[in-house]
Write a structure and sequence with these properties.
The chain has helices at 7-12, 31-43, 63-77, 92-104, 122-135, 146-149, 155-161, 177-186, 199-204, 215-230, 234-252, 257-267, 285-296, and strands at residues 15-18, 48-51, 82-86, 109-113, 140-144, 167-172, 190-193, 209-212. It is of the alpha/beta class. Helix content is 48%, strand content 12%. Helix 10 packs antiparallel against helix 11 (234-252).
């Protein structure tokens, strides 16, 4: 495969990180923590910053906080990475408003989760996504994560939505590789793996890139993985993925991704506190020990 940037990479990047939202012990957003985290992610090869997504604790962020996060990260990144704003909720009108606020705050693109809790029909999912995509001029990455939303974006729905000029990509956390390959074959949608455990299989099957939680502390390794697959060096790609297994297990399969990603950042001294907002709780001592052991197996980030 060529190293030449593909159109989706120009819009979203390829090595994206689902950013944690640094917080003070009282739960307020930590501006110094944001500065350190953005600097760290840019220094370790991240070219796309997903702000206010699930790992950023989006359900607990107010509209004002979400917009301020985008403005702050845009200013800090200084065009060195694409800033993708999470704007999806279960309320179409609120999602439209958040999309407009993200555009005004300087976001480069939007991440739009399938409406959760309400469990709309597939035509309802289409109507919701089209309303948000129509609300701004920004490119949209759909986010299909049925474990959180309770419903899937069916293949027919994704194919229909691909006809919208601003719906350009999918963050796939469904894990159905055959469906992903089928939709890629039938549309121009760029696929991004949203399941760290499956980064290598998705890339090998044609995904454009990753939206990684583990990337908060291993964006450099993810960049190496992407490059290895693109160059056809699957032996190196498998070795990189294998080296990340303990860390992926500790962050994604021990407690909860946002909790453990933030704990990992604090353990490495990148952010000062591992505070999460309720209903999330900081990791139990056995979970933290498992994380500490896993971090020791991976070279410390720059």
């Amino acid at each position: 495969m060529t190293d030449q940037l593909r159109p989706a990479e120009l819009l979203f990047g390829s090595n994206l990180v689902a950013m944690a939202t640094p917080m003070q012990p009282d739960g307020a957003i930590s501006e110094p923590g944001l500065v350190h985290l953005v600097d760290h992610l840019l220094a370790t090869g991240c070219d796309g910053l997903v702000v206010g997504g699930t790992t950023g604790e989006s359900p607990t962020l107010t509209e004002a906080e979400s917009a301020r996060l985008v403005r702050t990260v845009v200013a800090l990144s200084q065009n060195r990475a694409r800033v993708v704003a999470g704007v999806g909720t279960y309320n179409t009108a609120e999602s439209v408003q958040r999309a407009r606020e993200a555009e005004a705050a300087g976001a480069d693109a939007l991440l739009l989760v399938c409406p959760y809790y309400s469990r709309p029909t597939q035509p309802g999912v289409v109507a919701h996504c089209v309303a948000v995509a129509d609300a701004t001029e920004l490119p949209v990455m759909l986010y299909d994560v049925p474990a959180r939303t309770g419903i899937t974006m069916e293949a027919a729905t994704l194919i229909e939505l691909s006809g919208h000029p601003r719906i350009r990509a999918v963050k796939d956390a469904k894990g159905d590789l055959f469906e992903a390959m089928s939709v890629m074959d039938r549309t121009s949608l760029a696929y991004y793996c949203g399941i760290d455990e499956l980064n290598l299989p998705y890339l090998a099957c044609g995904a454009t890139g990753l939206v990684s939680v583990v990337g908060n502390v291993a964006a450099d390794r993810n960049a190496e993985l992407i490059q290895a697959v693109r160059s056809g060096d699957l032996a190196s790609a498998r070795a990189i993925q294998a080296s990340l297994l303990p860390l992926t297990d500790a962050i994604m399969r021990t407690s909860q991704g946002a909790i453990m990603a933030k704990a990992a950042l604090a353990e490495l001294g990148i952010i000062p506190h591992a505070t999460v907002r309720r209903p999330l709780l900081e990791p139990l001592p056995p979970h933290l020990q498992r994380l500490t052991d896993a971090l020791a197996t991976v070279a410390a980030p720059a």
